[in-house]
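In response to a reviewer's request, we include the raw inputs and outputs for one of the modeled complexes. The two entities were modeled together in a single run.
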Amino acid sequence: MDTFVQLVINGLMLGGLFAIISVGLTLIFGIIRLVNFAHGELLMVGMYLTWLGTTQLGLHPYVLAPPVVLALFVVGLLIQRFILQPLLDARDAHVQIFATVGLSTALINLALLVFGADLYATPSSGVRDSIALGPYRILVGQLVMFVCGIAVVAALHLFMERSYLGRAIRATAQHRAAAQLMGVDVKRIYMVTFGIGAACVGLAAVLVAPIYPASPTVGTYFVLTAFVVVVLGGMGSLHGAFIGALIIGLVDSLSGFYIAPDLKEVVIFGLFITILLLRPTGLFGLGRGSE
Amino acid sequence: MLTLHDVQAGYGRTTILHGIHVEVRAGEVVTIVGANGAGKTTTLRTVAGLVRPTAGRITFEGEEIGHLPPHEVVARGITLIPEGRQLFPFMSVRDNLRMGAYTPHARDRMRQTMDEVLDLFPRVREKLEQHAGSLSGGEQQMVAIARGMMARPKLLMFDEPSLGLAPIIVSQVFDVVERIVQTGVTVLLVEQNVFRTLSIADRGYVLENGAIVMNDSGAALLRDDHVRRAYLGI
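The model returned the following structure tokens for the whole complex.
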């Protein structure tokens, strides 16, 4: 029983991390209608930035959160402005998706060129210390991930519901032409949306770096899981992504122990295929014709 | 106020408007009548910036606006209430109206405008918290008009506001348009209900196959033989 509870705690904490990565992905999908295959590589860029900041400037990884988040926000804006926006009027909407695949490959190879294939471990400076909670233990880093996950989802929810900009973002997703007629600059909305999605992944990078070493392909593992989360929660749904992230975190943690560590991805992707077969709109998906 | 000078526009390689001249003066109600596919909607979409003119000039209050993207046209004071309502279906009616006041100029006075607009649309006030997508067609049209008013436009363009509505609702829509006209907003109206439209219009243009074939006062067009035969079935 103690083991089970400990695994549940681990799973929920991991879910917090998945939530941060997934909300960015689901936001970009829901608003821009774009599957961002370079999402993992943005995580990778953020992790190298965190490594640089800690080893070259001697800063604590968490102190780097504001600059890394800001840097990724700007990177996201620029990607939308200079790579995706020129393709906005392309005849085939899939061109944009292929562009993100290309961007992903380019970033991986850029990282190989600059850093090589070695693993770069960010100094953990207390992040791996554990807190005792009765018979259970939680790593400081895990707890921070969980708290940040909730905070990010709550902040995004408030932003989307309450602010003028958030309302304009939702309006653009629901009816792009009508949003333009209200005076919304749709290109700017897309830039901001991609920027926010990238900024979320920047925060995730800062939180992951002290626990998991950076490498050119590090993004793949986390973001493939995030894709499962997004599909489970319903593509485009923020609270769906949050609940989905917690569920996948639990599945990851429990199947890694009760089935086999090597097989947990089999379980996760088995679940992925099951969702696609039985409920392709996910838990909170809007279903067909929701434009 | 608004002048279209020899404007050509279309979609891709298809030209819809073959050089049209239209003028709307401040305080007027001007209508464009014509058959389906004549280019009425394209005219309004071109003014709104959704379609870029391939030739000709569009000026508003003396400034060239033909090259501006839609959000900048709205900021200048031109609002289009589009055909088919085009509400934000998963937003409350209140949020739809808030979106109507998105431009900085309108946002500053949103509360006041909201009160004024809701006085004009008492039925909309009762539905404020409902999702726009859950309303009936007539209610949605009222919300679409109210949302357009929220921008505090100088020129309000209506594209087929009565399309697809039951006759009694059509009558209500025209009542609303007349009340809006009385508030002093300049109106450019495209509508399939030619008789009622010409009755309230100061002037009208007849658009056929992308060209203006007649323009005269609303009353004169109502008496015209060609208009009576082609559009009124008399």
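As requested, we also summarize the result in words. Chain B has a mean pLDDT of 92. The first strand of chain B starts at residue 2 and ends at 11.
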